[in-house]
Amino acid sequence: HVSRLVMSGNDAIVAGALYAGCRFYAGYPITPASDILESMARELPKLGGTFLQAEDEMASLAACLGASFTGTKAMTATSGPGFSLMTEVMGLASMSELPVVIVNAQRAGPSTGMPTKLEQGDLFHALYGGHGDFPRIVVAPASVEDCLIQVVNAFNWADKYQMPAIFLSDQSLSHRTES
Predict the structure, then answer these.
(1) Are 98 and 68 in contact (CB under 8 A)?
(2) Residue 166: what pLDDT?
């Protein structure tokens, strides 16, 4: 009898991040990325890692940069509204040449959006958002399996090029399950 492992896109992101060596996670709850926060809170301490639920998205990313400054692989996850708040701190990450992975589980609509509807509306923000021009890596997975593979790549590229890597998921991929 062969048992099948079934996981969601968010589960795959967590598994890939832990496999890639992520040992610090800071975040603030926001749908559809909250599953990542909950899983990292449960799994990171088992590996000697550190979890922080910060007071907002800016503090989450700033804490990740502090961890990165010490040489610790760090990640945060958010959705569109939180990603907008992180823009200034992403610029700091790039200017300071600090590797970090930022998961943006996109949802529909402007401003606070619609947490249960699907849209990939943050692409241009991920590519071009910020004050001045700063380099960043943008990764967009195609499936649950690809979430696991590409988040490992995001950590490796962020570390190699010493810059933030933005991982674009979306509401559908976050909650879709595949074996």
Answers:
(1) yes
(2) 98
